[in-house]
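Review form for a predicted model. The reviewer records the input and the model, then writes brief findings.
Reviewer: anonymous (R2)
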Amino acid sequence: MGRYFERLQVVVGVLIGILLACVVDPHGRCIRGENDFAAFYAGARLAGTQDLYSPSAAHAIHREVLGKEMESVTFIRPPFYAWLLKPLAGLPYQRAYWLFQVVNLSSFVLAVWFLAGSYRELRCLALIFPPLIVGFVNGQDTLLLLGLSAGTLWLTQKRQDFAAGLVLSLCAIKPHLYVFVPLALVIQRRFRILSGAVVGTVVLALISLAGVGPAAFSDWIQALARDAVHPNLAFMANLRGLVTVLNGRLGLEIGLIAATSAMTLWMAWRSDAFDAAFAWCLLGGLLVSPHTYLQDCVLVLLIAPFTVLRSPSSLVKGLGVLAISPPVFLIALVGSPWTVLPPAMLLGGLMLAWWSTVSSGNQGVRIPRPVDSLAYSSPLEPGESVHRSGRPAHDNPAHTAIEVRHEPG
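Model under review:
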């Protein structure tokens, strides 16, 4: 009976998700592929050429495959991503588009399968999560990012840290969202993951050089500086969008970025597991990034189960439940000033969790490591001692967390 009810929930979730997609896209742009995928297809066609970031070259491809130009839809991702998308260039536009969408949906399904182990209700809520619908309708690849992020955590739980770092390096397709993650690796002393990420990044950088050499990077930076890259600032789901809606000044935005950065790193340092530190840094990246839209908030499906939903504070946990439920994001779709709700909620969750941690007054820093493996050991600083806490590490009863206590003297 329980499995039947779960399957019924999934079916209902899929139907509601389809209905929401029709509401978000009443003109059927998604069916025709008249969305951001046109930029990825143009990037695949132009990979290795000097026109990779040329708006006129992208518009010419738009006219060829869609019969119309899409003004602000041009390739702005790192050069290596165009090469990874290159196989799509050999397919007709519609086939390439639906293959891209299938890969993204498959990535989403695998991510939710993994995340549902930490928060069972996520399986149904994810299907009607507005950022998922918006990302799919807009032909974005944020579902792929969700899958790569979940894959990174899954590999760390399997003790495949170097492989986890390699997968993490692929998240460089949107590097601005992962700006704090390298610091999480250092803070949590996960140097094998860091080494894998470095190796993967070097390989991707070398791939980027294929065709036009170092000029690819300078062209990419110039493309990011174009005003058309950041349309409708009030619709951004970050601190920039929050300040824009509030008619704040640059000083307010800088102050919020500084405070958010400090709270993010504090939460990563105080986290009792790497997955929590990773998720807090991902939340901080969403907020401080100069380019975060509603579809990028699909990453909240990964962030919430490892952060606010684990909080002992009922207020923080309640905000976490709200963060993965549809109402806030659905209201934001109405437009400004309601677009302020997602970034305000994300910032509020971070602030409440930070305050809860600070006010708890704990002196120790719990760092879970399997005590039976030297692979996860790291030298202690002077004045530190190791104690078994008896608490499962990474929610795995086979692992026992240890506590590193800072002792006086």
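Findings: The chain has two domains: 2-360, 365-406.
Further findings: The first helix runs from residue 2 to 24.
Recommendation: see findings above.
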